[in-house]
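User: Hey, my collaborator sent me this sequence without any context and asked if I could get a structure. I don't really work with proteins. Can you help?
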Amino acid sequence: DIAMQLVSSAENSTLNWKAQYKYIEDIKDGRGYTAGIIGFCSGTGDMLDLVQLYANRKPGNVLAKYLPALRKVNGSASHKGLDPNFTKDWRTAAADSAFQQCQNDERDRVYFTPAVSQAKADGLHALGQFCYYDAIVMHGPGTDPVSFGGIRKTAMKKAKTPAQGGNEVTYLNAFLDARKAAMKTEEAHSDTSRVDTEQRVFLKAGNLDLDPPLSWKVYGEPFHISK
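Assistant: No problem. I've predicted the 3D structure and written it out in structure-token form, which is a compact way to encode the shape of the chain:
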């Protein structure tokens, strides 16, 4: 839950991540609509997978009719076939516990579980697991230089992981440096405060277990988790 609150502070400027099931907007980053608890995008395929899962579990739901359009706009920023009612229908679906569960399950399958598994294999504690998770949410899984796999690879050229006998703080600094470089390649992600004033703060404090209380800032806004 702490990981979700930390990601939500950066993605939605709030710790209340459970209020984000209904969130949807085009943030003009070339990925079409961004929506839900970790920013599923109409242009990157994860929103399509989510809506497909919902249709499999609950045929005829309010979003099922958009599946053909979501297939067509995948890979682009287009809203073709989605406007004018997709955002309204998304918010309607978000009140359905079945759709909320689909969002949780897809988040875990695509992002959380792979990130935490890789972090544990690399010998990282809770902070490192969170750093991996936040990176995979923003940059996506994959192996190209600016996706999660590529960022990790860049970091491993600079420092050994704890599993390889390296120092955890040194390695995480290398990972955050690589993450920051990847963020700077994209205008929509050019504000790197979620690294500088959030993750790096915990790292400098030596809080590798992410033990509360936690205080940090994202985009200049302060947040705090007391327990």
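In plain terms: The mean pLDDT is 96. You can pass these tokens on to your collaborator as they are.
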